Amino acid sequence: MAESIKSYIEDLFNYLDVYETNYSAFETEAFLQTYHGIYAVFQALRKQRDKAVEVDLYFLDKIKQAPISSSDLRQLTVQVLITYFESEADTDGQSNRAYLYCRDLRPVKRDAAFFEQHLVPVLIREGRLNNNLKLNAFLLNEIARYINKFASALDTNLSPEQFGAMADHSKILELAQRRISLGTELVKDRNTLEFHLQRVGDFEKLSAKNKLFAHYLEDWRYLVKTSFWSKLQAALGTLWGKFTGTFKSFRYFRLSLSQRKPAYLLQSLLIIIFIFLAIYVPLKWVSYSRERLQNFENRAKQTQNAINR
Asked: Tens digits of per-residue pLDDT, 257-282?
């Protein structure tokens, strides 16, 4: 198994090299499959300590071959994957040399704090990862999954005020963590933070700050987009409802006419209706007259043809 995972690790770092030197040849799907192939072995290495140490040293050797900061993808992939390796596979402190090497390069040593304060801002900055949205979403999900699994427990009772006080990048991370732990249909539940944030327009405000934020919120179906025609239809529907409701009660109708705005509205509607009728009725009458004249001419021709026979 150690040789097999070494092959996957070799492939992963080759993909990182391609990303940095020839991005047009970079294969996102193959990169993600290789990442998953490496991660799938971590649990088994918990019981195979000699192999875990061997893999750890191989990781360390590959990591040292290039600066971690040589690209955004290398930094994100190495720091996240090696932290998972230490958390999943290292049970006795004997297979954590690669992790300690990476941690020493961090400005913040705690994993969750480093991920949130440094990696997520790198991830959500516009233009990062060559605008590869699939790669971006995958790494955000991996960071959120790690924090949920190994760091602090998710606050399921987070208030809108607490959410609003967060930094923008922390808000996106928080929403990603909640989707992993609580489900992907939170915005449909009236009791959730997501439902409230959508109702008061906070998602629209957040999406306006960053194109990547807008992408995530649209992809998660938290951002509701309405076309001009749907807005116009809703406005006309509301207006028609108020208009018809006025006539349901004579007393209410009389009261409405005593108020300036409803009176102006009613007068405007009546003017529009009469203008419409003034145009529609003559056009309809002309159309009817033409139809009758055409029928008369057709009958005259038929009669003439019958006489000529």
From this structure: 555 555 666 677 778 887 877 887 88
> pLDDT by residue (tens digit) across 225-262?
654 454 456 555 655 565 555 555 555 555 555 555 55
Q: Are 119 and 143 in contact (CB under 8 A)?
A: yes
**What's the whole-model pTM score?**
0.73
Question: Which one-letter DSSP state was computed for residue 186?
Answer: G
* Structure token pair of residue 140: 């955000």
Q: Is 142 helix (H, G, I), strand (E, B) or coil?
A: helix
The pair of three-digit structure tokens given for residue 309, joined into one six-digit string: 């026979």
- With b for 16 or more beta-carbon neighbours within 10 A and e for fewer, the 10-42 pattern comes to ebbbebbebbeeeeeebebeebeebbebbbebb
Distance between CA 67 and CA 90 in Å, rounded? 24
Closest CA to 210 of 289, 140, 308, 262: 140
